[in-house]
Specification:
Layout (H helix, E strand, L loop, with lengths): L11 H9 L8 H14 L4 H5 L2 H7 L5 H4 L4 H8 L8 H21 L2 H6 L7 E2 L12 H13 L6 H10 L3 E2 L13
Parallel strand pairs: 1-2
Helix pairs in contact: 2-7, 2-10, 9-10
Length: 186
């Protein structure tokens, strides 16, 4: 079975993530919030580093509940700085708390984060990979989304990070043309 070339098939947990999650269209706000935290934590690191710590993030960030995370205070930040199950980067931890508050604001203004984010692709996943190799880190869409979120006050969510978020949550389909998951749509 052929899978995306970037996937290290010697890592069963990575294969499972690729086959069952990556690129599957998401419509659950809690999952969107999870990926915003995880993708922003990844900045400067490999996705596999974060994937191995996913359970630690789940525990540290209240099962990815934005309402709870939005209430984290400086004592909680200090506690998280001691938590070896996550990346102990103060700026990333503080960004997650900041972003939780803004995530809730978007939910309030748009009815859901799902409605907000899917409006960027007219409620249809984009099929960006129309040719073989596709070593793209950003697109016009991720640039626009990064600019819009920055204007709202989001942190650690630049264009590259947001493009990875769009790929992971299925707003864009970037599976290799011959990947077994290419035509899957959730």
């Amino acid at each position: 079975m052929k899978r995306c070339n970037w996937l290290d098939v010697s890592k069963p947990d990575y294969v499972e993530y690729h086959d069952k999650e990556w690129g599957v269209p998401v419509h659950d706000d809690k999952v969107f919030f999870e990926f915003l935290i995880l993708e922003s934590a990844q900045a400067g690191l490999s996705w596999y580093t974060i994937l191995k710590r996913r359970e630690g993030y789940r525990n540290a960030f209240a099962n990815f509940d934005p309402v709870v995370v939005s209430t984290f205070d400086s004592d909680k930040v200090e506690e998280l700085m001691q938590d070896a199950s996550i990346i102990r980067n103060r700026a990333k931890i503080e960004a997650a708390i900041n972003n939780a508050k803004l995530f809730l604001q978007i939910q309030s203004e748009h009815g859901s984060f799902d409605s907000f984010i899917w409006s960027y692709v007219d409620n249809n996943p984009l099929d960006n990979r129309v040719k073989g190799d596709f070593p793209v880190a950003t697109t016009e869409l991720s640039d626009r989304l990064a600019k819009d979120l920055k204007k709202l006050g989001f942190k650690f969510l630049g264009s590259t990070t947001l493009y990875a978020f769009l790929q992971a949550t299925g707003l864009v389909n970037d599976h290799d043309l011959d990947c077994i998951c290419r035509t899957r749509r959730g």
